[in-house]
Amino acid sequence: MMYIWLSFICAIGFALIHFFSKSMRFADKVPRSKFLSFSAGVAVSYVFVMLLPELKDYQQVLSKELENSPWQYLENHIYIIALVGLVLFYSLERLVKASQKDSQFENTSSGVFWIHMSSFFVYNAIIGYLLVQEEFTTLFGLLFYFIALGVHFVTNDWSLRRDHKQIYDQYGRILLTAAILLGWLLGVLTEVNELVLSILQAFIAGGIILNVLKEELPQEQESSIGSFLIGSFGYAFLLLFV
């Protein structure tokens, strides 16, 4: 019961980040905010120290569950699912850029906006769901998960606002706020087996990796290398004790 309440606090924290993201004007500064460079380091560290090694554990679960199925002959199933997540979000980003190129005001079309928001709604809902269903061995494991994804959400909000302008503040941030809470609620009310859980984890891993590479590795002329190094090595050091 205590863990449920702690996960709820984290879900509220994620939701507040999205809801009040339009007030985070520091992210729009040029040269790039030191906080965004720091968050880049934290997110990259999380991907390489926690996320990628966890895929190996999910692969073992998936291989066991598919032992007697026609899919058993496909090697590295879990990595294929992660690749699907990465390719999906990459394709959506290309769709957004193509829409902006066709617009003289560099705005995306309404249809592209809703497609983009729908994908991130699912993305956030799964993260909220895993907040409950993921088995964190320690309280610090949950805390570090919250920190990594919290700064990741700040950068995601900055990127989505840049792409969609005022319409994101009007509708997008509300949808993403609701998605986190909805995912958490579904995590409390429902429970899936290890096979589905491993698939969800791998899909989200692919999406996080793409978003980290796309936005959280800042361009050289806009970055603070010191903040990036502090975020990456400092967070990696902390993860060693989880």
Question: What does the model show?
Answer:
The protein contains eight helices and no strands. With 242 residues, the chain is mainly α. It has helices spanning 2-19, 34-65, 77-102, 110-133, 139-164, 166-189, 194-216, 225-239.
Apparent shape? globular
In the predicted model, the low-confidence regions spanning at least 5 consecutive residues are: none
Estimated share of beta-strand residues: under 5%
Question: Gyration radius, to the nearest Å?
Answer: 18 Å
Calculate the mean pLDDT score and round it.
81
Helicity level: over 70%
What summary fits the major beta sheet?
none
Overall SS class: mainly alpha
Q: How many helix segments? A: 8
Q: How far apart are the first and last residues' alpha carbons, in Å? A: 22 Å
| Record field, number of beta strands | 0
How do the helices and strands follow one another from N- to C-terminus? HHHHHHHH
Short description:
With 242 residues, the chain is mostly helical. The protein has eight helices and no strands.
